[in-house]
């Protein structure tokens, strides 16, 4: 590996929607070549953090947002092709809407085999299941052919076996990756570094080798405990204590 | 997440109903004041006898020359279809650059001039020709398409953009994300606009193009009411059957037919005349010769004798028509609803509203003018009936969409009580929003009614063209356009004040925070 250089850097970054604090003084460095998993309960600020990172290096990032960003009326082929739009001139891009360009057709044909979507290539994506749509979104990210991958739960609705394979493929195809996940086991098995977020703060940032599933679970449970200290839900806790 | 709202108390004291009522009282008050100033005289022309004959003509339409009727229908469709076919791609292209101020100003200014005024302008350049008819529709429509398409693109999810290369050119970006995302909305709006184009095309007959309006005006003026009835029914049938004959696959065939059907006079004017027209003819002589005091005299005369009186009448009629439109909506919409008229009895109501919605204001005004003479009264009636019918139809549809849904309860009141306690309060904000959207249209139309002889701005514009005083016509058209832009921004503000703006879907995309 070449000399590690800093790719993303945040120092004491905060962000709020109105009164709601989404990110609370985050400081973070991510180097070229690192594979980072982002864990934490929903609403912890993972998505916002990924978008902030995206804005630091939009030119070399393939981003896969949680929604996938698919265009419903276009086919699987066109939706993946969109990832490579910058490599095509305007006129060929126009023509491609009517008749797929031969070179891209071959490349995307090979790509959908990896994704297990070869029989859906010409179907519009609004007719696909959640897992299939997610695989199309992965296809687009791969077709961007960028050195950095930022994924917001990129494999959350794919069946476990295929999810693992595709995640591995994504990590192999990108030099650097920051991926938010729900599955702690996937994070431990495939990433070198794990960041756990809670209430807009980074509460754990450690090499994966130093962490175990139990200690990750503990972070989630603590998050639950702290939110039930909220005055609104206090009566529930009281009821639980009574029973 | 459940949270107690500390601002709840503040919101509770701000009643939305009070704001809406305030806006309504203001509008009605202004309309009542306007009645004093407006020319609403009823001329004694014995309307009942005339009405009787028109009624007979409508019930017993007759047309002796089917070829002429077919040709008129064909040319009406041809102008509309070709104009839409050209203005949609142009509008699409402009909508991609709508973030530029230049494009927005250009679109707003072409939009604010009515098709008929464009027709009068192009007539000076290209005579009574196919070019004039096409340009008269496609120029303002391009501006409308650009604005509406841009708004539709704005409402699409921003997520696909995040997955693209960051510096793609506009065309590629739009064609692969916004256009396919908004496709269903684009198609349905274009379909609606085609209906508007048919109305505009028919109306262009009033200034001499060979469409349905031309034959209609002739038939009415000659008292051939059976023929006029046939023309009106043909037009209504044409509009009502759009969804049966407009098929995507058939459109290329129609386009070829349309080109073949256009009047043979292509109407080319040499570039020299065009240049003379915009550099000399439309400016007052005094101004061209650098005679400043003469120019000031000219503008002073125009302002006091034509612009001001025309402006005042246009605004007064618009205000009365706006409020009367509201009254018509409130009276007419229950007739077409399932919950109040009943599953079967709503069909006559829907039919009536569809007829009102499909008949252009100009045609209605023209008929009413034969009955009540040339005052503001026919214009106000026509504007209120057409726009009221159009909005009442939408309101009735909204009511039907809710009928039997989870919002309805078995113990809901029936009949008049239901109207007063359930339906009207629920529909009111949307109804006001539609009304404010139509405000600009009502203003445009009441200005144009002048062509029929009512003393609004259109009357002075029409006379200026007749007297070949292009300088006057240009000034008056510019004032009309400016007035439109002003009313548009005022109506946007009122909508915001009354909080009737349809809520856009909130985007949680982080890129919007900046």
Automatic annotation (TrEMBL), chain A:
SMART domains registered for this protein in UniProt: AAA (SM00382)
Keyword Nucleotide-binding assigned: yes
GO molecular function, one term: ATP binding
Main location: membrane
Domain ABC transporter: 8-224
InterPro entries: AAA+_ATPase, ABC_transporter-like_ATP-bd, ABC_transporter-like_CS, MetN_ABC_transporter-like, P-loop_NTPase
Localization per record: Cell inner membrane
Entry protein name: Phosphonate transport system ATP-binding protein
Species assigned in the record: Marinobacterium sediminicola
From TrEMBL, chain B:
Keywords of the record: Cell membrane, Membrane, Transmembrane, Transmembrane helix, Transport
Highest taxon in the source lineage: Bacteria
Signal peptide residue numbers: none
InterPro entries: MetI-like, MetI-like_sf
Residue stretches making up the ABC transmembrane type-1 domain: 73-244
SUPFAM superfamilies named in the record: MetI-like
Annotated localization: Cell membrane
Entry's transmembrane regions: 20-38, 68-93, 228-246, 253-275, 307-331, 351-371, 377-396, 441-461, 473-490
Membrane topology: Multi-pass membrane protein
Protein name (Swiss-Prot/TrEMBL): Phosphonate transport system permease protein
Source organism (scientific name): Marinobacterium sediminicola
Lineage of the species this protein comes from: Bacteria, Pseudomonadati, Pseudomonadota, Gammaproteobacteria, Oceanospirillales
């Amino acid at each position: 590996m070449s000399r590690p250089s800093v790719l993303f850097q945040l120092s004491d970054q905060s962000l709020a929607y109105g009164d709601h604090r989404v990110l609370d003084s985050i400081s973070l460095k991510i180097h070229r070549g690192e594979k980072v998993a982002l864990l934490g309960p929903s609403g912890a600020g993972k998505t916002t953090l990924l978008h902030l990172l995206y804005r630091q290096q939009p030119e070399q990032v393939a981003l896969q947002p949680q929604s996938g960003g698919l265009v419903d009326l276009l086919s699987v082929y066109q939706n993946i092709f969109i990832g490579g739009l910058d490599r095509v001139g305007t006129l060929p891009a126009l023509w491609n809407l009517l008749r797929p360009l031969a070179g891209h057709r071959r490349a995307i044909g090979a790509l959908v085999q990896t994704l297990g979507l070869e029989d859906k290539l010409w179907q519009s994506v609004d007719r696909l299941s959640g897992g299939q749509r997610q695989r199309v979104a992965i296809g687009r990210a791969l077709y961007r052919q960028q050195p950095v991958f930022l994924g917001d739960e990129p494999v959350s609705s794919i069946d476990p076996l295929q999810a693992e394979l595709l995640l591995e493929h994504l990590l192999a195809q990108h030099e650097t990756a920051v991926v938010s996940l729900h599955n702690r086991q996937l994070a431990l098995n495939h990433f070198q570094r794990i960041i756990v977020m809670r209430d807009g703060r980074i509460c754990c940032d450690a090499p994966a080798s130093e962490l175990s599933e139990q200690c990750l679970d503990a972070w989630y449970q603590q998050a639950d405990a702290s939110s039930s200290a909220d005055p609104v839900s206090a009566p529930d806790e009281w009821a639980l204590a009574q029973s | 997440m459940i949270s107690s709202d500390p601002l709840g108390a503040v919101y509770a004291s701000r009643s939305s109903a009070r704001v809406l009522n305030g806006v309504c009282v203001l509008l009605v008050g202004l309309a009542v004041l306007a009645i004093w100033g407006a020319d609403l005289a009823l001329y004694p022309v014995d309307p009942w006898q005339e009405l009787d004959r028109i009624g007979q003509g409508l019930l017993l339409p007759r047309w002796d020359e089917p070829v002429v009727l077919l040709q008129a229908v064909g040319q009406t469709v041809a102008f509309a279809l070709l104009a839409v076919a050209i203005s949609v791609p142009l509008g699409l292209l402009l909508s991609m650059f709508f973030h530029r101020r230049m494009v927005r100003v250009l679109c707003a200014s072409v939009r604010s001039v009515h098709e008929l005024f464009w027709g009068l302008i192009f007539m000076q350049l290209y005579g009574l020709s196919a070019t004039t008819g096409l340009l008269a529709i496609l120029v303002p429509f391009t501006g409308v398409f650009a604005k509406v398409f841009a708004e539709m693109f704005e409402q699409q999810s921003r997520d696909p953009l995040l997955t693209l290369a960051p510096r793609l050119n506009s065309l590629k970006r739009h064609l692969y994300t916004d256009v396919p995302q908004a496709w269903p909305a684009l198609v349905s709006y274009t379909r609606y606009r085609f209906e508007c184009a048919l109305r505009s095309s028919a109306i262009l007959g009033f200034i001499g193009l060979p469409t349905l309006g031309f034959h209609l005006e002739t038939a009415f003026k000659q008292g051939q009411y059976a023929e006029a009835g046939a023309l009106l029914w043909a037009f209504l049938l044409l509009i009502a059957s759009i969804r049966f004959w407009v098929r995507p696959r058939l459109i290329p065939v129609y386009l070829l037919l349309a080109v073949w059907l256009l009047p043979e006079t292509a109407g080319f004017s040499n570039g020299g005349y065009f240049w003379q027209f915009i550099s000399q003819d439309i400016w007052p002589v005094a101004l061209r010769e650098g005679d400043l005091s003469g120019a000031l005299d000219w503008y002073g005369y125009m302002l006091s004798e034509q612009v001001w009186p025309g402006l005042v009448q246009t605004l007064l009629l618009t205000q009365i028509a706006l409020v009367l439109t509201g009254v018509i909506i409130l009276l007419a919409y229950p007739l077409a609803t399932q919950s109040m008229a009943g599953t079967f009895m709503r069909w006559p109501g829907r039919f009536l509203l569809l007829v009102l919605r499909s008949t252009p204001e100009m045609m209605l005004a023209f008929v009413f003018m034969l009955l009540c003479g040339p005052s503001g009264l026919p214009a106000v009636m026509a504007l209120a009936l057409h726009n009221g019918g159009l909005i009442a139809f939408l309101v009735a549809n909204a009511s039907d969409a809710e009928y039997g849904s989870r919002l309805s309860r078995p113990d809901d009141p029936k009949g008049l009580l239901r109207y007063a306690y359930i339906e009207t309060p629920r529909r009111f904000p949307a109804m006001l929003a539609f009304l404010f959207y139509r405000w600009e249209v009502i203003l445009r139309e009441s200005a144009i009614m002048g062509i029929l002889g009512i003393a609004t701005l259109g009357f002075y514009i029409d006379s200026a063209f007749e007297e070949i005083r292009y300088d006057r016509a240009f000034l008056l058209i510019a004032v009309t356009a400016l007035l439109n832009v002003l009313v548009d921004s005022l109506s946007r503000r009122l909508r915001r004040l009354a909080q009737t703006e349809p809520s856009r879907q909130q985007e949680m995309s982080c890129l919007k925070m900046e």
